[in-house]
Amino acid sequence: MSQDWKARTRAVHAGTRRSQYGETSEAIFLTQGFVYDSAEAAEARFVEAGADEFVYARYGNPTVAMFEDRIAALEGAEDAFATASGMAAVNGALMSLLKAGDHVVSARALFGSCLYILEEILTRYGVEVSFVDGTDLDQWRAAIRPDTRAVFLESISNPTLEVIDLPAVAEMAHAVGATVIADNVFATPVFQRSLELGADVVIYSATKHIDGQGRCLGGVVLGRRDYIRKTLEPYLKHTGGALSPFNAWVMLKGLETLELRLAAQAETARCLAEALAGHDKLARVLYPFHPSHPQHDLARAQMTAGGTVLSLEIAGGKEAAFRFLDGLEIVGISNNLGDAKSLVTHPATTTHQRLGAEVRAALGIGDGLVRLSVGLEDAGDLIADLEKALAAV
Length: 393
Ligand SMILES: *Cc1c(COP(=O)(O)O)cnc(C)c1O
Hints:
Blueprint: H1 7-13, H2 39-47, H3 62-75, E1 79-83, H4 86-95, E2 103-107, H5 112-124, E3 128-132, H6 137-143, E4 148-154, H7 166-175, E5 179-183, H8 188-191, H9 194-197, E6 201-205, E7 219-223, H10 225-239, H11 245-276, E8 282-286, H12 296-302, E9 309-314, H13 317-326, E10 332-333, E11 343-345, H14 357-362, E12 369-373, H15 379-391
Parallel strand pairs: 2-3, 2-4, 4-5, 5-6, 10-11
Antiparallel strand pairs: 1-7, 6-7, 8-9, 9-12, 11-12
Helix pairs in contact: 1-3, 1-11, 3-11, 4-5, 11-15, 13-15
The structure holds pyridoxal-5'-phosphate.
The site of pyridoxal-5'-phosphate has 17 residues, from helix 4 and helix 5.
């Protein structure tokens, strides 16, 4: 790969390993193991495997390596390790780095399973975790201590779409030598360069936009080579969260069209936010690139587009929100996101049910809030569908 290649070229060509057949589309190396030419060769590979030498698919696989190299090239990361799901990536990134007695500071507004790892699992092994309002730099400043080992955040939070000031948080974290781990799923590799903004480690659930068509689970951790190979890889290869070669192939093909799909989806999301803002059945429309977003300027400074998700606060609470969901025809009711198909979810009764009403209220997740993941359908059709459902509220 030439370092001069732009993102669109990298997304199509970076990481490609052609077999002796010269196939144009990447091969699926659906194999668990690898055969060595001799006993001596097996021994040598176990001492040190070269860049394109594999020993077992839990450690690495040629199709998985193509995906890792391609996403690393897109992200501008030195290296990447692919995982079976986004949560295997989050768990691996944290567990491989931390030990009993360490201190972590995390934004409170997190995807439910991320919160579970930080709140329930890490603490069980003696890691101390302090939660802050991610949008409040004073809270970050107060919580980060000389012994803070890691900072965890979702660069755009789910489902309230709060924007974290990544350069400011990273500066505070780096002043005490802490590693900044950013779950960049909502911001996507296309719209936010989180490593350039100060993150040390970036995580994706490839399940979302990278697949982009709702088929396979996958994840990836990106960062500097010494962290990926010396800290993360030993943990992941022995604990078994490896990405399957078939799923890696789906993700690899997803990367080829990622920018095109995301540009279309984000443009539609922006149109929907504009069309729905001020609607008399809506108390709020939340979209990072809409001028009414409380951190609109920060979003514009950090991102090149507002993403593919918007959140709507339906006036009238749960009953009104349910009537809205049930009135939709094109948009499916699903807790997934990043699909070509537009999907809507009611966080208070699904993804964030476990938190309880008090915590939800503190996070701004009211009973009228719905999260809309915008797909690839026609914007006019989606607006008509949403307006018809709002009329039924
Ligand atoms: C979906 C998601 C995850 C988890 O990814 P899986 O692939 O479902 O394991 C983590 N973080 C965020 C922000 C997500 O949206």
